[in-house]
Amino acid sequence: GENVEQHPSTLSVQEGDSAVIKCTYSDSASNYFPWYKQELGKRPQLIIDIRSNVGEKKDQRIAVTLNKTAKHFSLHITETQPEDSAVYFCAASNPSGGTSYGKLTFGQGTILTVHP
Amino acid sequence: EAQVTQNPRYLITVTGKKLTVTCSQNMNHEYMSWYRQDPGLGLRQIYYSMNVEVTDKGDVPEGYKVSRKEKRNFPLILESPSPNQTSLYFCASSFIWAGELFFGEGSRLTVL
Questions:
Q1: What is d(CA B56, CA A12) in angstroms, rounded to the nearest whole number?
Q2: Are residues B106 and A102, on separate chains, in Cβ contact within 8 Å?
Q3: Distance from B110 to chain A by nearest Cα, in Å?
Q4: Phi/psi of residue B78, each to 5°?
Q5: What is the pLDDT of residues A1-16, one digit of tens each?
Q6: What gap in Å lies between CA B17 and CA A95, rounded to an integer?
């Protein structure tokens, strides 16, 4: 089955700096890659996702890049703000079928702290 | 208001005492899933359901059961809970498979 590795496990930045979180996946058939943000004590919420027919997707200060050859994808947050502090999870799945149909595998999470 | 509702939110129980965590969504979503969250392990999928009467195992199904008799409800059943099932549990749903997941508020379970 799919295995997703996420790094780093913790990331500390100063307000205004950029933050990058990287995930690698094992199943070359995976082609849907969402990112979820979980604030302390809250539920995870989708912040951005990408499908394998594109290499990059942006939404204001966040962007996701995908390298299917290397089987990794990354979350980029620019001009970080204290409210960006949270746990971020990447995930991977193969929506097309096979034994992984219906499964969404998450990474271990990254605790991002943005210092004012 | 569109939401995923889980109950109970907090529960302390003892080994072997059957319990059910309910999950209900009011968005007419086809796909529903259960996850457990443990420190350092992220979110791990327990079971999922593509639609009514269609359920399948995720990555960590041992010790759990589910059912999907109605589209809106997807209860998680622990027939004989053990301490290693102490965790934070999330139910989630999406309109279609591989769409945005909407999570419930979570249920923190402690098994003594």
A1: 39
A2: no
A3: 17
A4: -110, 105
A5: 889 999 999 999 999 9
A6: 37
Residues of B within 8 A of A46 (CB-CB) are 100-101
- Chain A and chain B share a number of CB contacts under 8 A equal to 56
Chain B residue with Cα closest to A100: B58
Of A6, A46, A102, the CB nearest to B56: A102
* Closest approach of A35 to chain B, Cα-based (Å): 10
The whole-number pLDDT of residue A98 equals: 67
pLDDT in tens, A18-43: 999 999 999 988 989 999 999 999 99
What residues does A110 pair with on adjacent strands?
A88
Q: What is the pLDDT of residues A79-109, one digit of tens each?
A: 999 999 999 999 999 877 666 778 899 999 9
Question: Does position B111 have pLDDT exceeding 80, yes or no?
Answer: yes
Rounded to an integer, what distance in angstroms lies between the CA atom of residue B56 and that of residue B45? 11
Tokens of B94: 């999406």
For A30, A35, A49, A52, B24, the CA distances from A57, given in Å and listed in that order, are: 17, 12, 8, 11, 32
* 3-state DSSP assignment of residue A84: helix
